[in-house]
Amino acid sequence: MNFEDLFEVTGSEVECEEAPFVAERSVQAVQRRRFSFDCVPYSQEPAIQNVSEAEVLKRLDVLQGLQKDYINRLAIIETALKENVPDKSEVQAQSKLLRECRVIGARTHQAISRITGDMEDEEYLDLASKLPMSSIEHLATVEEKLKNRASADVMMRLLVKARGVKGTVDGVLRTLLHDDLARDYDLEGRKGKKSLISLKCVDIVFDVFAEKPKQSVLDYIRRYVALSHNRHKQKLCKLKKKVVLSVNN
User: Fold this and answer.
1) Quick check: is 9 in a domain?
2) Sign of the C-alpha dihedral, residues 113, 160, 141, 150?
3) What phi, psi does 10 have (nearest 5°)?
4) Angle of helix 136-145 relative to helix 200-208, nearest 10 degrees?
5) Kind and range of the H or E element at 113?
6) Which one of 25, 57, 155, 169 is least enclosed by Cβ atoms within 10 Å?
């Protein structure tokens, strides 16, 4: 079939032939249908507004002025931060000095008490009676007391005294915590254990050994935890042996 037989252009109308669907083995009739098209003129883009070179330069000058202003403000903020924020090494040195002063103060108080024969105050006797702590209840009571600075100073005096007798981190911690309580704790609180270094009473141990590097004290505490768990296991084994012997007898 020729393409011209299907389409005819007449004015603004286009004629085409359509073959509608008919039943099987029937003759397909060709019908003509007219379609109307409205021609819309092509819309041109709006003309770009002409800006003079002087206006462009003026706007650039404004932007450069704002940029310089922002740079000056950032420089002022940066200078203020450098002046107000101390160096990390300086903060660590000041913290170490503060801890050493607290230890010296506790030792001085202890020496004066021995010389004058003054009796310890009620707070001192109350905290001393709870050491070594063997239950969660005692530990919770002491931790609540240590929120008070006066009680924290009393605990410092107790642990400084313990260091004078025991001499080691392990000895001070054994004065502070019983193995029955320490079994539930780990250094960082792993494997279902509670964190030991999160306790306020253990934080005072760092102050007692302020002259030692913090990492060194952490290593001693980690060693104490391992030895404490081992001592508790040995205690349970001995207890089981006693029970078995008593049953057999």
Assistant:
1) no
2) positive
3) -130, 105
4) 70
5) helix 88-116
6) 25
**Residue 57 belongs to a domain:** no
Q: What's the number of domains the chain is made of?
A: 1
Is the whole-model pTM more than 0.85?
A: no
Q: Residue 185, Cβ neighbours under 10 Å: how many?
A: 20
- Cα separations (Å) of 218 from 188, 207, 213? 10, 12, 9
149/155 Cα distance (integer angstroms)? 10
Residue burial 201-212, b: 16+ Cβ < 10 Å; e: rest: bbebbbbbbbee
Closest CA to 161 of 191, 203, 194, 131: 131
- 77's enclosing H/E stretch is helix 53-84
Q: What pLDDT was estimated at residue 81?
A: 67
Quick one: pLDDT at residue 33?
A: 52
Helix axes 214-248, 169-176, angle to 10 degrees: 60
Q: Is residue 119 part of a domain?
A: yes
**Residue pLDDT, tens place only, 104-128:** 666 665 565 554 444 467 888 888 8
Look at the block and give the residue holding tokens 């040195």: 93
Whether residue 93 is contained in a domain is answered as: yes
Which of 15-24, 104-113, 136-145, 192-201 has the least mean pLDDT?
15-24
